[in-house]
Amino acid sequence: GSTIGILGAGQLGRMLAAAASQLGFKCRIYSDVPGPASDVAVSTTIGAYEDLDKIAKFAAETDVVTYEFENVPVEAAAAVQRVRPVRPGLKALEVAQDRLKEKQFVASLGLPIAPFAAVAGPADFAAAMASVGVPSILKTRRMGYDGKGQAWLRTDNCLPRGFEIIGEAPATLEALVRFKFEVSVLLVRSIDGEVRTYDIPQNHHDGGILRTSTVPCVLPPAHQARARDIAGKIAEALDYVGVIGVEMFYVGEGPEPLLINEFAPRVHNSGHWTMDACAVGQFENHIRAVAGWPLGPTDRHSDCQMTNLIGDDVHAWPNLAAEANACLHLYGKHQARPGRKMGHVNRLSPAGKGR
Ligand code: ATP
Ligand code: MG
Ligand code: MG
């Protein structure tokens, strides 16, 4: 079998490596810190993402390289690409790691998105306030995750206070969306451009962190088709290879029932239910795509609710391990810090029987 390189050592890398191993691949990890993926890969190279020589040497020991988080510097991915193919490509990485570029890209495709504006810093907000106004959310352009680097703004003069919360970094201001609920599209695209999508989960967040993803969701069929169509257009425009997760707000009736929130150029937390409710889950399909294999089926054989185990939630593992029809996944992290994703549980029920 051949060897897949993964940039990043988090839990997504761990589950990618486990899926790859099932298909006879070996995985090598490159990361600036050891992490949950290191335990299941054949090797972990610890190095800075700025150490382009080290990254190139790492790449030479693999056949193809993917990434498990979107904040890998584009220069690092470019250094890999001089040696081995990087899938998904550099464009997906470059666009998705910068909220402003991401929103501009989505808008340039004519796809639906809430009003937004760039804000360079606390002194530059008159234009953004004039065009977006309040209520709105100030978000750092880079490095935000799990709702970190965000400040909710409710009054006209509160932007300086927003920057106190997020720090003095370039930001975007976006209108607060009064959504009915959140959904995401998990789409996989092969090297030949074949596209498959999983069923659309309904996602519930708590304090900015994904709590549950549930399938099936109650999105009307026509709007599900629209959601898939939107994700397909993004993947096509990026010449994407692998799994992409596109987060959307469902706003309901009207000409545009869905607004794009953001997309992740990788396997996505809201797709973790596919591991147990589908014959081929998102991790295996990502590996298949980047390895140039045919895609696997994305059909769902069970209804499922995925619940993240965040922080101290993980201490309930003995009960979860004993629960009928509950598939437990633990990431092997040593410390259960508040807000830290420690594992997840997929609760299955027969398809179509409701919950
Ligand atoms: P992730 O962990 O998904 O990468 P993130 O830190 O990049 O999260 P977002 O997805 O931008 O953050 O926001 C986190 C959550 O905050 C969203 O899923 C949604 O519940 C809420 N949220 C974000 N932006 C908006 C908005 N414009 N209107 C209403 N709610 C929002
Ligand atoms: Mg995000
Ligand atoms: Mg998000």
TrEMBL record:
InterPro entries: ATP-grasp, ATP-grasp_carboxylate-amine, ATP_grasp_subdomain_1, PreATP-grasp_dom_sf, PurK, PurK_C, PurT/PurK_preATP-grasp, Rudment_hybrid_motif. It catalyses: 5-amino-1-(5-phospho-beta-D-ribosyl)imidazole + hydrogencarbonate + ATP = 5-carboxyamino-1-(5-phospho-D-ribosyl)imidazole + ADP + phosphate + 2 H(+). Pfam families: ATP-grasp (PF02222), PurK_C (PF17769), RS_preATP-grasp-like (PF22660). Keywords: ATP-binding, Ligase, Nucleotide-binding, Purine biosynthesis. Residues 103-291 form the ATP-grasp domain. Its EC number is 6.3.4.18. Coiled coil: none annotated. SUPFAM superfamilies: Glutathione synthetase ATP-binding domain-like, PreATP-grasp domain, Rudiment single hybrid motif. Pathway: Purine metabolism; IMP biosynthesis via de novo pathway; 5-amino-1-(5-phospho-D-ribosyl)imidazole-4-carboxylate from 5-amino-1-(5-phospho-D-ribosyl)imidazole (N5-CAIR route): step 1/2. ATP binds at residues 99, 139, 144-150, 174-177, 182, 205, 261-262. Catalyzes the ATP-dependent conversion of 5-aminoimidazole ribonucleotide (AIR) and HCO(3)(-) to N5-carboxyaminoimidazole ribonucleotide (N5-CAIR). Catalyzes the ATP-dependent conversion of 5-aminoimidazole ribonucleotide (AIR) and HCO(3)- to N5-carboxyaminoimidazole ribonucleotide (N5-CAIR). Homodimer. This is N5-carboxyaminoimidazole ribonucleotide synthase. The gene is purK.
